[in-house]
């Protein structure tokens, strides 16, 4: 491929691209997300272009980075490439290869269709009161932090907030992690920490001798807890198949039987697949939304005039008091979709800090056509659809490093107007994020309640004085994204209750 002139960084005939990778990654903190790698390589080698190959043998599969919208459209919409086997192995300890993130073919289509109704916007709107109730608990905890007047890691609180919402939405169960430890959630978080992707350079991390034992123990705890809840749902459903359960699992059971009229009751097949989906929803659903919520606090703390515009929109649309905002949203949840500036802030936050990417597997005979007209073979490669470098590429965004929510409110005649396909936090195509509408609802509700009551101050300066280290930024960004895309050091914060609401 190098002889064919296909794009790649300088190649070492013995070590491949490892020297290049190690060199650029050594300049940023070791806990940084790997999605920074394409941007760092392009900065070091300006002629590289947005799509290029990289060989990391023997530590991982060879990679084809795709970082521009035309090629991304080809691999996710025009011809949706399958998920890469490395991703399936990464999630296998958690979901046993039976999750809709990594399943393929008719099996994936069947189970995606079964769970789609629970994630429809119409259904999710009926769950707005539930999201408001959990957010009210979140605000109570923030009030306690305000009274303590100490720095705390915001990510630890948003993790618990989103986890409680997912538990209620998916299973109609109160995990109550915001107010107490939950053994199942603790086991899930422990298992997530022990998941390892195939490209880990540290051999101790890749082949830890106790990894399988930890996964087995955690899986037992998680499965026991979730199966007990599934038993409750299935028992209720067998009593009345017209049950009015609003949980995603409840709707999935109805769809499961409707899809195959020969089935008279919920069977073991549903139980096995539902267990895997629930664990995947708990993992993906809580961490991604939690990270985005932290970054919303971060950008609004840095842009007080934008924060004030968001609050003004909430006051105008939902009322001046917290009680009026709560009652109006419970009565008319569709009002969440009538907050254009709030939505613009969300989109701009997800542009600068995308929390997910897509790992696809190349196929024999399938090539990507790049903007220069070259044909890039995919067979044998991990095809990595990375939105982070695209979202900050000056070829597609005016002032890409600047937080400008108004770019989402202008018309196509304005230079700020986003180029079609250049914003991809949830990806496009049939394998897009099933939970994107739920995530947006959670974030909007939290913005309404938290911004009404609190001033959130990001406290990296004080944190760094108390916890000094040499390398703590990526391209000057202190709140760089960690391996699971959350902000560094959990986003150290202080909060104050606003005088008008005290």
What does this structure look like?
- The mean pLDDT is 93.
- 50% of the residues lie in helices and 7% in strands.
- The protein has helices spanning 18-25, 37-44, 69-78, 85-95, 105-115, 121-125, 128-148, 154-171, 183-193, 203-206, 211-239, 248-259, 268-302, 304-318, 322-331, 340-352, 387-391, 436-453, 460-466, and strands spanning 51-54, 63-66, 152-153, 358-361, 367-369, 375-377, 382-385, 454-458, 492-497.
- A 4-stranded mixed beta sheet has the order 1-2-7-4. It has a 3-stranded antiparallel beta sheet with strand order 3-9-8.
- The chain is globular and about 65 Å long.
- The longest helix is centred in the middle third of the chain and has 35 residues, at 268-302.
- 41% of the residues are buried.
Terminal residue distance: 65 Å
Give the total of beta strands. 9
Q: Spans with pLDDT under 50 lasting ≥5 residues?
A: none
With helices defined by DSSP (H or I, 4 residues minimum), what is the helix count? 19
The mean pLDDT is: 93
**How many strands, what sense, and barrel or not for the largest sheet?**
4 strands, mixed
Question: What integer value in Å does the Rg equal?
Answer: 23 Å
- Give helix and strand order, one letter per element, not per position: HHEEHHHHHEHHHHHHHHHEEEEHHEHE
Which structural category do the helix and sheet elements fall into?
Answer: alpha+beta
Q: Approximately how much helix is present in the residues? A: 40-55%
Strand content: 5-15%
Strand order in the largest sheet: 1-2-7-4
């Amino acid at each position: 491929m190098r002889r064919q002139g296909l794009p790649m960084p300088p190649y070492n005939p013995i070590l491949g691209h490892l020297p290049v990778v190690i060199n650029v990654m050594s300049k940023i903190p070791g806990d940084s997300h790997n999605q920074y790698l394409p941007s760092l390589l392009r900065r070091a080698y300006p002629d590289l272009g947005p799509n290029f190959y990289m060989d990391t043998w023997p530590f991982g599969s060879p990679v084809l980075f795709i970082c521009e919208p035309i090629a991304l459209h080809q691999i996710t919409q025009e011809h949706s490439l399958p998920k890469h086997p490395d991703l399936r192995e990464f999630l296998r300890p958690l979901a046993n290869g039976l999750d809709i993130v990594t399943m393929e073919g008719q099996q994936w289509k069947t189970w995606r269709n079964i769970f789609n109704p629970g994630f429809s916007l119409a259904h999710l709107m009926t769950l707005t009161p539930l999201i408001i109730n959990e957010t009210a608990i979140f605000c109570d905890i923030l009030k306690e932090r305000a009274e303590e007047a100490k720095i705390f890691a915001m990510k630890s609180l948003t993790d618990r907030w989103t986890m409680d919402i997912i538990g209620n939405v998916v299973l109609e169960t109160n995990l109550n992690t915001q107010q107490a430890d939950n053994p199942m959630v603790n086991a899930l978080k422990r298992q997530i920490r022990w998941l390892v992707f195939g490209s880990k350079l540290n051999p101790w991390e890749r082949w830890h001798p106790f990894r399988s034992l930890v996964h087995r123990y955690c899986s037992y705890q998680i499965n026991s807890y979730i199966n007990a809840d599934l038993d409750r749902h299935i028992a209720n459903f067998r009593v009345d198949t017209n049950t009015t359960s609003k949980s995603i699992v409840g709707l999935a059971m109805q769809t499961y039987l409707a899809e195959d009229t020969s089935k008279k009751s919920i069977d073991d097949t549903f139980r096995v697949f539902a267990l895997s989906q629930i664990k995947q929803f708990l993992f993906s659903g809580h961490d991604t939304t939690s990270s985005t919520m932290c970054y919303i606090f971060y950008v609004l703390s840095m842009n007080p005039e934008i924060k004030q515009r968001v609050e003004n929109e909430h006051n105008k649309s939902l009322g001046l008091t917290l009680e009026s905002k709560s009652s109006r949203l419970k009565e008319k949840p569709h009002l969440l979709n009538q907050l254009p500036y709030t939505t613009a802030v969300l989109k701009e936050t997800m542009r600068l800090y995308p929390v997910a990417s897509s790992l696809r597997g190349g196929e024999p005979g399938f090539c990507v056509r790049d903007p220069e007209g070259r044909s890039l073979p995919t067979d044998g490669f991990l095809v990595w659809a990375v939105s982070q470098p695209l979202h900050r590429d000056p070829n597609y965004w005016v002032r890409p490093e600047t937080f400008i929510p108004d770019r989402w409110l202008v018309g196509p005649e304005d230079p700020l107007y986003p180029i079609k396909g250049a914003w991809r936090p949830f990806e496009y195509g049939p394998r897009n994020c099933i939970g994107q509408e739920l995530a947006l609802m959670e974030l909007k509700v939290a913005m309404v309640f938290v911004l009404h009551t609190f001033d959130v101050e990001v406290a990296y300066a004080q944190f760094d004085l108390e916890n000094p280290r040499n390398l703590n930024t990526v391209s000057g960004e202190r709140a760089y994204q960690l391996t699971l895309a959350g902000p560094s050091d959990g986003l150290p914060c202080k909060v104050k209750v606003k005088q008008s609401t005290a």
